[in-house]
Structure formats: structure tokens, C-alpha cells
């Protein structure tokens, strides 16, 4: 995520309020059938004890997010989106395939602010109750541990943006000609039910149905479009596992350009027609160039396509939504684009296990941003490190980079800059060849999975042959400026 700062402050974070686009393939998707007819009822009381899954992933940074007892394998989302309908902008059916990690007579899905009309488990009607942001499902039969099950949820309404006093405004953002959706860290369950925590990644397919004068873009690669009764439906596939918060969508009047980068990676970009800059051609060119350069530095590109969306959303951030980063209504610099593209390796393919390790996302992407700035003829990486080391006041060093706390989750210095400084100090300590070999190993060893700071420290020690625990403790966990 990159948070756009006013004036000359060039701190980089990476959370974009927009959507994503893809390439063609697959069968045409019919318009969603709409909500299934019968409203559900709260789960009845029973003399038999319930064996529910946990109602949280247990991450203190996002209390209540995620659930336990199962692992989602796949989301299939049929979304009819009419942005101008204030009462019901979204009419949807979600089908979720999951693996039961234990026997369950009930389980939870995260879903906020939308009306659920019916729930089915393995094709049979299930009882449910909607308690705040938790959809509690009681299937008609016990789910056996160790097997797969499917839950279908029909729901509708107008998703509302998240307005968090600490984390700001994000999620479903209405634009002049449509909607832009970016969800870090807890916005996915405002528009589809699921296990909304990065520790549970899954593949996706999405059928997006919108008024035919609009274009819809999301993650992954797209199939053929069909138009019927004034509505256009496009099916998209995300074939590599994705954390729910990295799912995005954008609906609006877009100029779209797609092709293949010089290095052979499919690319799709979209720029809203009302955005003054960048042009779709310039955006395409820079995205393609940086993607190919990061492949040389970080290893094979992890997803089926690259690209991005610039939307006319009134937000000042960009987000590394998987395969297709999204940007608010501003002209992203090359360094911001470099930041979001680096996240495709560090944050999207290799995702955090808990949010306390967010420096593994933002520190890595910020350091890539520094490298790209140096390559463009801007400030050198060492010079930037020196300026921050000498010029940052003592109070800023008190936030622990490796566990900053929820209030400091997107702290510009502690998470982004000190995270990047940690990597540069490590590079200086172990040498360029070993350092960049380490980054490639990290991306390869944890591809499509989740990882922790402890795992990165262990890999750094193994690759370098050095004992680094004191080094990482000083840079990530001590509330003071580390020794040089």
C-alpha cells in the first residue's frame, strides 16, 4: 500500500481504493439469478451441544476478522452491480468451497452490512443468524472433519465504506461513474462473505454483471463478455491463491489497454476516462517496464497477468490488489508504481500470517521503491538511508517495526521507512549477491503462502551463514535507533 502524502513527503505505503482488470478466457457467464427466495431464520436452540468453528482468526490487530475450523479453498462470486442504485447496488450469490479442519455443527463467515436471504450447505438449506459482522451458519447435518464442504450465500444491499478512526476510509467507495473497491486490511467482508484474514488464501472466480455502458475490472484474467437486457457480464479467474483483502473491483467508464510485456507477461491496465493523467498508454508502458525489471531482481512473476487501474475515487492511496494494483484519483509516480508492483512478490504471493508482520509487505515494497528511484537518477539508496538515520527524531524510533501495534499499522516511518532501512542495513552487512539471492529465495520458498518475521530471519541466517538475531532485534524490535 502507498499512502499519498501532501507536499514533499515521499513516504510510501500501499493501499489503493480501486479495482482490477484481466484478460479473456472461459465460458460466458449468465447474469446472477438474484437472491434465492426464502429468508433464513436464526439457528434454533438444541439440547445437543454445538461444535462451532472459532469466530475469529485470533489476530489482535483486526479483532473479529477471520474464523477458525475451516480453510477456504475457492470463492465463486456472482455479482450484479448497479452503482447508481442507492438501495441495492449489489445483488449477489457467493459459493464457497472449504476444507473442514474439525467436525462442526456450526461455523462463521465474515459479512457486514448486507442482507442475507438464503444459505445452503452442500445443497441443503441451512439455518443462520446475522450477528453484527458475523454470519453464523448452522447446517442441517454435521460437517465431518477432514472433508470438503460447500456453502452458498445469497445476499444483497449497498456496501458501505469502512470508516476506521485509525485506519481511515477504504472498502466500497462510490465514484462519479461507478464504484472502486480496495480492502486492506478488513474491507473484503463488506462486499462478499468469507474468511476475511490474510492467513486464509484461496482461488477465486468472479462473474461481474454491470450496466452495459460501464466496464467492470477485477483481479486475474477475464473471459468472454455477454450482453443481455442492457447488462454486460464478464467472468474472471484468479488461479493463484489470494488473500481476501487483495480482491478488488472497479466499475466505471474506463479506457482499457491489454497486451504482453516485452518480457512476455500478459498485462491489462484501465484508466477512468475522467482522470486527467496518466494516459492509458503511459500507464501501460511504465507498468510493463517495471514488471519486467522486477522479474530480473526478484524472480519469476508469480501471477497470470500484471497491470493496474487508475480510478476517479476520492482517496489518496494505492493498493497492491493482486495482479492489478489500484490507484485513487491522482497521477501515480513511477516509484509508487514500483512499490505496488514489488508487492506482487512481497505481500501478495508471500503474505503475512498476522498483521504484526506488515513490515514484510511494506518494508520490502518501500525498499524496491527506493531502488527504482535510484535507477531513475533520483536519490541513491545509501543517501536516503543516511538522511533517515540522521534526520529522524528519537520519538519516531520508539515504534517497533516488527510489531508496531494496531494504531501504528501504517506508520510511515516505523513500518515503511524503518522496514526499508532494515533491508538496506542487512544488504550492507551480508553483501549484494547474498542479499538479492535471499530475496529471490524468500519469494520462491513461500510462493502463494504465508510467512512470518521469524521465518525471514531464519532464512537470512541460512543463506548468509551469519548469526543475525541481534541485528534483527535491534532493527525491528528495539524502541530506539539501532547502532550502525
* Tally of separate helices: 8
- Number of E-type strands: 24
Q: What is the CATH superfamily label of the largest domain?
A: tricorn interacting facor f3 domain
CATH architectural label of the largest domain:
Sandwich
Relative helix content = 10-25%
Average of the residue pLDDT scores: 90
Give a brief outline of the structure.
The chain is α+β, with helices and mostly antiparallel strands. It has helices at 280-298, 334-342, 359-375, 381-391, 412-430, 432-445, 453-464, 469-477; strands at 2-3, 70-81, 90-100, 107-110, 115-121, 124-125, 127-131, 134-138, 148-157, 162-164, 168-174, 179-182, 202-211, 215-218, 221-228, 231-242, 249-252, 254-260, 266-272, 306-310, 317-319, 325-327, 351-352, 450-451.
Textual characterization of the structure:
It is a single chain. The protein is of the alpha+beta class and 484 residues long. The protein has two domains: 2-341, Immunoglobulin-like, CATH 2.60.40.1730; 351-477, Neutral Protease Domain 2 (Neutral Protease, domain 2, Orthogonal Bundle). The chain has helices at 280-298, 334-342, 359-375, 381-391, 412-430, 432-445, 453-464, 469-477, and strands at 2-3, 70-81, 90-100, 107-110, 115-121, 124-125, 127-131, 134-138, 148-157, 162-164, 168-174, 179-182, 202-211, 215-218, 221-228, 231-242, 249-252, 254-260, 266-272, 306-310, 317-319, 325-327, 351-352, 450-451. The strands form five sheets. It has an eight-stranded mixed β-sheet, with no helix packed on it. A six-stranded mixed β-sheet has the order 1-21-22-20-19-18. Helix 4 (381-391) packs across helix 5.
Amino acid at each position: 500500500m502507498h499512502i499519498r502524502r501532501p507536499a514533499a513527503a515521499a513516504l510510501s505505503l500501499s493501499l489503493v481504493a480501486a479495482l482490477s482488470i484481466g484478460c479473456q478466457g472461459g465460458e460466458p457467464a449468465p447474469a446472477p439469478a438474484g437472491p434465492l427466495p426464502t429468508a433464513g431464520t436464526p439457528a434454533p436452540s438444541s439440547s445437543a451441544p454445538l461444535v462451532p468453528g472459532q469466530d475469529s482468526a485470533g489476530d489482535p490487530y483486526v479483532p473479529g476478522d477471520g474464523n477458525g475450523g475451516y480453510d477456504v479453498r475457492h470463492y465463486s462470486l456472482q455479482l450484479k452491480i448497479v452503482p447508481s442504485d442507492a438501495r441495492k447496488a449489489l445483488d449477489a450469490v457467493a459459493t464457497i468451497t472449504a476444507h473442514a479442519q474439525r467436525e462442526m455443527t456450526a461455523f462463521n463467515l465474515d459479512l457486514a452490512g448486507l442482507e442475507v436471504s438464503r444459505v445452503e450447505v452442500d445443497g441443503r438449506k441451512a439455518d443462520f443468524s446475522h450477528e453484527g459482522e458475523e454470519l453464523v451458519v448452522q447446517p442441517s447435518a454435521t460437517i465431518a472433519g477432514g472433508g470438503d464442504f460447500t456453502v452458498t450465500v445469497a445476499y444483497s444491499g449497498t456496501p458501505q465504506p469502512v470508516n476506521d478512526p485509525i485506519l481511515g476510509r477504504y472498502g466500497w467507495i462510490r465514484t462519479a461513474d461507478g464504484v472502486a473497491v480496495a480492502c486492506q486490511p478488513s474491507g473484503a467482508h463488506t462486499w462478499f462473505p468469507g474468511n476475511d484474514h490474510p492467513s486464509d488464501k484461496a482461488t477465486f472466480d468472479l462473474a461481474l454483471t454491470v450496466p452495459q455502458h460501464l466496464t467492470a475490472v477485477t483481479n486475474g484474467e477475464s473471459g468472454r463478455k455477454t450482453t443481455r437486457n442492457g447488462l454486460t457480464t464478464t467472468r474472471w479467474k484468479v488461479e493463484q491463491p489470494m488473500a481476501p483483502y487483495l480482491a478488488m473491483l472497479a466499475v466505471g467508464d474506463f479506457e482499457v489497454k491489454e497486451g504482453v510485456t516485452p518480457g512476455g507477461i500478459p498485462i491489462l491496465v484501465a484508466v477512468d476516462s475522467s482522470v486527467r493523467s496518466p494516459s492509458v498508454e503511459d500507464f501501460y508502458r511504465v507498468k510493463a517496464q517495471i514488471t519486467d525489471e522486477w522479474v530480473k531482481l526478484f524472480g519469476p512473476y508469480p501471477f497470470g497477468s500484471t497491470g493496474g487501474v487508475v480510478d476517479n475515487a476520492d482517496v489518496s492511496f494505492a493498493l497492491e490488489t493482486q495482479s492489478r494494483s489500484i490507484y485513487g484519483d491522482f497521477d501515480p509516480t513511477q516509484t509508487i508504481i514500483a512499490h505496488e508492483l514489488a508487492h506482487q512478490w512481497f505481500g501478495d504471493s508471500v503474505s503475512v500470517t498476522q498483521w504484526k508482520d506488515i513490515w514484510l509487505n511494506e518494508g520490502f515494497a518501500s525498499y524496491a521503491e527506493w531502488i527504482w528511484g535510484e535507477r531513475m537518477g533520483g536519490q541513491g539508496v545509501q543517501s536516503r538511508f543516511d538522511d533517515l538515520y540522521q534526520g529522524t527524531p528519537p520519538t519516531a524510533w520508539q515504534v517497533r517495526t516488527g510489531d508496531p501495534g494496531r494504531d501504528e499499522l501504517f506508520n510511515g516511518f516505523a513500518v515503511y521507512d524503518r522496514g526499508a532501512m532494515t533491508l538496506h542495513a542487512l544488504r550492507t552487512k551480508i553483501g549484494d549477491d547474498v542479499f538479492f539471492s535471499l530475496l529471490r529465495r524468500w519469494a520462491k520458498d513461500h510462493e502463494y503462502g504465508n510467512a512470518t518475521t521469524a521465518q525471514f530471519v531464519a532464512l537470512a541466517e541460512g543463506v548468509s551463514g551469519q548469526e543475525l538475531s541481534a541485528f534483527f532485534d535491534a532493527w525491528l524490535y528495539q524502541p530506539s535507533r539501532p547502532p550502525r
